[in-house]
Amino acid sequence: MQKLIFIDTETTGTDREKHEIVQFAAIITSDDATEVLDEINISVIPELIDNIDLKAIEVCHKTVDDLLANQYTMREAHHIICEWLSKHVDRYNRKDKLQFIAYNSRFDEDFVRKMFERCGDQYYGSWFWNPSICVMNEVAFLARNHRHKLPNFRLCSICEFLDIEFNEEEDAHDALYDVHKTIDVFKKLI
Question: What is the chain's Cα-based Rg?
């Protein structure tokens, strides 16, 4: 059985070198994504405060003060994430890994890898199969004959296209909400 993990991050900007994760959410599901096996949702206090892109956090309806009131430091968050992952993966077994899945997975994967690196952890690959699965790319292929009907390729637009309810005003850009919607899109794809 393939172990699937759907991940979304909210960050202080789009450049993984100067920005960082401020919310990490993940859901582990059954191999057909119909059953939620476990989930995590944590907020991370930014360390690189001078690098915060105010427009990026505004999209999440957050202020710098909101982010500074988050739950955990980056190192604490990394430790909590690894402890949580270890309930599902034997990181020392090369055949036991989670399949990293996300909407625009490259973005989230890059930020998670960078968090591990900043915490001195070189073993990101002991948790996840490579490459990740990008739900956005899968939808792009399947919707290639309907691209002219889509205003953009944001998750909310794809949900609308696939008749999946999406509350953009209240819930969009919350990592856990976006993970749930990514799972809904993934289930439509399979």
Answer: 16
Q: 181 vs 33, 52, 150, CA distance in Å?
A: 12, 26, 18
> 3-11 and 98-102: which strand pairing?
parallel
Q: What is the pLDDT along the chain (190 residues), one digit of tens a residue?
A: 789 999 999 999 999 999 999 999 999 999 999 999 999 999 999 999 999 999 999 988 899 999 999 999 999 999 999 999 999 999 999 999 999 999 999 999 999 999 999 999 999 999 999 999 999 999 999 999 999 999 999 999 999 999 999 987 766 679 999 999 999 999 999 9
**Distance in angstroms (rounded) separating the CA atoms of residues 5 and 28:** 4
Cis peptide before 151 (omega within 30 of 0): no
Is the CB of residue 23 less than 8 Å from the CB of residue 174? yes
